[in-house]
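Researcher: Here's a chain I'd like modeled. Treat it as a single chain, no partners, no ligands.
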Amino acid sequence: MVTGSTESMAGELSNNHGNGDLWIARLGAALPNQPISLLAPTYNCETGAFHFNTSGGDGSPIEFRAAPGITGWTTNPDQFVDKESRTANDVKPFTLEARQNGITVTYNWDLRAHCLTQLPLKLLAPTYNCQSGAFHFNTSGGDGSPIEFRAAPGITGWTTNPDQFVDKESRTANDVKPFTLEARQNGITVTYNWDLKAACGRVRLGVPESKTELILTVLGNPVQEHLNVLIQGADDQTVQLRLSDLQGRLIENRRIERAGKDEIQRFQVNQSQSGILLLQVTTPTQRKSLKIIQK
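Model: Modeled as a single isolated chain. Structure tokens:
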């Protein structure tokens, strides 16, 4: 509420009225808090990364639960769906819960339906370094299960590793033909015709091999919640990192535009997935893989 005086006519706020009138204006009242509600979560069918989404509430801390298979009560909205639930064909819908100041709300979420409605698998133009021959398969859509790739001859036979190199003969030949890239997932194969010469404008010779060896060091092995890796020998170079399990299921893909002399990268790993992890590191001239034991 705002009060004040005016000498205007009744209903007006200008001109002279001759008397002092008192006006009270209602500017509006604060809206009450909307009740807390759970929304559809944000979910990555490939990695299992899961995020609780809410609306409303009173601004105080919110606790979340989705058990079994995701998490018990926690204030952290970022979780992972365990591997068993992600891969089971008969997985049941989850009951998501959120509570705030004694009020609990729920949301029924069907993981299987969510991932089955994903867009179909599609191959996109690859990421390619004309100078070094470093090559990366790019895809969109799919059902989240491992993808195999092929581009033969000259690049790779069937593999779950999307990071490859084009051989020197193909990079330097003036008459190199377009490649047929292939990707397959659960019996479905898609293709993409890729013209190396058109992508580079002209054929480029590869750069000389780096004189500095690429060195990878895990800071603490076996790892638990976090993976810290030291990268040496990639000073001022672009570095691509791919962390996956031994079945080829992607955990995280990361790119460093310009690595430092002693470059340290930190990954968060899912505690529920013990076993062996595979870290693949690629620079314009070198590529190395490292196996990590996860408790």
